[in-house]
Amino acid sequence: MARAPLLQLTDIALTFGGDPVFEDLSLVVQPGDRVALVGRNGSGKSTLLKVMAGLVEVDTGGVTVAPGMSVGYMEQDPTMEGFATLGDYASSDMDASDMWRVESVAEGLKFDPARDVNVASGGERRRAALAKLMAEAPGLMLLDEPTNHMDIEAIRWLERELSQTKTGFVLISHDRAFLNALTRATLWIDRGKVRRQEQGFAHFEEWRDKTWEDEDMQRHKLNRKIKEEARWAVEGISARRTRNQGRLRALQDLRAEKSSQIKRQGTAAMALDAGQSSGKRVIEAFGLTKEFEDKTIVRGFDLTVNRGDRIAFVGPNGVGKTTLIKMLLGEVEPDDGSIKTGTNLNVAVFDQARAQLNPHTTLWDNLTTDPSMAVSGKADQIMVRGQPKHVVGYLKEFLFDEAQVRAPVRSLSGGEKARLLLARLMARESNVLVLDEPTNDLDIETMDLLQDLLGDYPGTVLLVSHDRDFIDRVATTTIAMEGNGRCVTYAGGWTDYQNQRAIDEPVAAKKSKSKGKVEAVKEAASGELSFTEKHRLDELPAVIARLEAEIGKLGELMADPALFTDHPVKFQKATDALLDRQAKLDAAEEEWMELEEKAAG
């Protein structure tokens, strides 16, 4: 028996007084659905969620919610007027007996319920909105960019919670790893049309590319048919004027069909220019130690950054990632240790706080009044990688239209502000890029382009990000800041870091165990053992010690970040050898335990 849908949209039309946002839109959300809602920035994803939540009134059509079913909506920028603390907001409209839910979610998402809403950051306010939604436990959750401004630890906590829930949800996110892990169906908004595929986001790009390929083929066939019919009309119309008017009307219909097709939005025409190369050694840091307000950022940290390295800094929010980068660049003094920077460094910074943008002035003024971009005597031009360019033309390359160019920055969406920052960043030459949370609010196509540019960029990249997939695609080295001053350098991206950590931790634990075991072997009693077993028991301590020594050497070899980037084959062989030695050590220890128990009777 088919289940009634949680929510149904029927023949929805919405215009906001201009071009249609949606026309003839119908869709259903079923119980247990885990849906990714994807599309370009500005395609209407957030608007569609608000329609589902009943917060936006449609022009025509209907929104039907199952009887007795509640719909919960988490917006990107929650309004908290009238509430003193984040906890007050998150627990509003809840019974006192349910407060434990808010506290539990607050602990998982790592925000302080006692935080004053007036001083809370955008990320803290968003986490409070998410806590409110999850604590209320509605029958359908509508989540608009829940992972923005979250650190990886909180994202993984939320990922686990959503993976275990039986509640249906529709999710907007640009975090590939998050979407891949959670979704089972995909809604795709493209030029006002909403398509659905009964597969999760992991299959989206293949589906999108096939759809566009089919569309291009149909457009090609249409163009060819129009060309053939137009040639016929020119060459034979006078002789067949009366009996072929129908064919002429068909040609007009074909041309009308072509003109009605909506052109796909292109990708931003982004480019990076490293300009003059830096020296081979970009940064050398020795024994860095830094404390802020009784919190240790780093302790005894060493790092060498070479030209072309792409280093990701990961760790919880507030652990000091940005502070460490500023120390490496000489902007913050360490309490102890030394830093040596290389020659010819030209640093460009993408600031997650977006302090480089003046929200009260226009996009035009934000670029033309920047001294590094101004062109003397040309108020309508800016300097782009050494060449003057009209400001409107340059902003069009980043998908801004002429109306937006004269609008204030505060009117932009989060994704548009991120694109404007990238436009400023990429207008200048640089051989060291500092990217502090560059992927927040960017759509997937723009993230793909940025990732490709960074892959070809000959300069050095210092990256702070909580997007695991983006780190995997970009980073050659990952520095894990684990708190209390502990910073560990790993070769590769996020997945490489996780794999190496999974190997390192058991090895460290086994070393301490094995010491005791080896000593015990020497004192093992000679119970009912055969001559061969006694001999094996005697030689096992040396076998275990040898395997431990080999594992230690392999661990030291793999700790060198340059091994992964400069010698990937050697790195893979070392990884395979480490896993092999670890398996042999496990087997030797197990064999020793069996023999020792037998000898003890």
From TrEMBL:
Keywords: ATP-binding, Coiled coil, Nucleotide-binding. Residues 7-216, 283-509 form the ABC transporter domain. GO terms for molecular function: ATP binding. Residues 571-598 form a coiled coil. It comes from the Bacteria. InterPro entries: AAA+_ATPase, ABC_tran_C, ABC_transporter-like_ATP-bd, ABC_transporter-like_CS, ABCF_ATPase, P-loop_NTPase, Val-tRNA_synth_C_sf. It holds the Pfam family ABC_tran_CTD. PANTHER family: ABC TRANSPORTER ATP-BINDING SUBUNIT, ABC TRANSPORTER DOMAIN-CONTAINING PROTEIN. This is ATP-binding cassette domain-containing protein. It comes from Octadecabacter dasysiphoniae.
